[in-house]
Amino acid sequence: MERTELERIRIEKIERLRAAGIEPYPTRANPTHTIAQAVQAFEVAETGGDPVQVTVAGRLRSLRPMGKVAFAHIEDSTGRLQLFLRINEIGEEALKQFAELYDLGDFVEAAGSMMRTRTGEISVHVSRITMLAKAITPLPAAKDEVVDGQVVRHAQLSDPETRYRQRYADLAVNPEVREVFRKRAAITRALRDFFDGRGFLEVETPVLQPIYGGAAAQPFVTHHNQLHQDLYLRISFELYLKRLLVGMLDRVYEIGRDFRNEGVSFKHNPEFTQLEFYWAYADYEKVMALVEEMLAYVCDTVLGTRQFEYDGTLIDMNLPFKRLSMRDGILEKAGIDIYAHPTAESLAEAMRAKNIPVKPGAQRGKLVDALLSEFLEPELIQPTFLYDYPRDISPLAKSKLEDPSIVERFEIYVGGMELGNAFTELNDPLDQEQRFLEMGRAFASDDEERHPLDEDYLQAMSYGMPPTGGFGMGMERLTMLLTNRPNIREVILFPHLREEK
Question: All domains of the chain, ordered by start, with CATH?
Fold first, then answer.
């Protein structure tokens, strides 16, 4: 690798450490306490216990050599702690090595007794310090802070492009980023607790599938060499999870990865995590009620409140959520009654009359979806169930008895973005077969709304599938919402990025 001048200086320090008989990458580390445990033990001892001896380990965050003493801060995953080094305890040579050969970013182990400095800061009075891993590359950028009259340098990283490409550096220097991913893990745990506590069974379904389906998206294609077979990375779990209901598993859920060969935006990434659940003997109204409970539970568990800020607005997740039919919402915001325009031609004419752009040859469902995206979605800030969708963009949902062109489907919107999608699931195998055929004829082969005919799924349905309600939600979008992050890349550890030129 081509090295910078600073990196070459640090490599020289590695050579100097080894020349002094010090291995800069030792095999063993022996901390007795995390930083949080060390602080807690000292606070207990301050009330009358014995002196606390600790060995702690972490990354050097600040360095202040001051002649015969030195101050430093180390950080681990539980917190930050000051080190106080004095020539009397560690010796002249060790203090000199610390001042000359240690740098910000190095991992060290420090042993000593816990104390408070004259300024009241809890610290380790160090009797021994050991290098655990020498950092060759300096942590990105720096900012200065005055502490006790001394200038202390701290690593800092703020450029979004660098943060996403070097997430390891971003995590190393930005504690608030680490907190986002701790919160994401807490959200996942809360969801598992919620469904496990309600009798749902967590399952796993294939990632590599011979036929893709269950969502409107282009798949990624791969090839199995031994089987001489093209396979697809799944775009949804839906069709496999519903097969399990045929097999008498009445309540199932899965949290896993989906892959969609689509554009990247502030709310889209080609690889993402999804929650889907399916509930026998339920319909979309029961699912609405369960989703309300689910989101309230996650807020209570992870945030401790149902009110929080997202993108400058106070979001209120107290129940019940607003319910709005798609027809009423589009009529209010776009001034078009989609029920009065049952064909694509009629709806396109109504849109042109209001100077709304129309894609030539677009199906009616696509036109409705365009109206939704343009006029309605950005207005749905507080949690809202938008329900009753056109049949031709919902091939897996059950039609309403009073109007077969409308299906029992809802999407939940919060903060101006779709959070989840749900149906009263179609369980008539003959109707499902006909819809697959219609979708194949109506859309071009490269259209994301086109669903291939899945004969095995139809075979499963032919054995009988109970009335079912189902729901899917992107975990990244929920995490964006609960961590007040406006871009999906902020909540994915390693988001997909264009190749650097």
Answer: 5-156 (2.40.50.140), 177-321+382-491 (3.30.930.10)
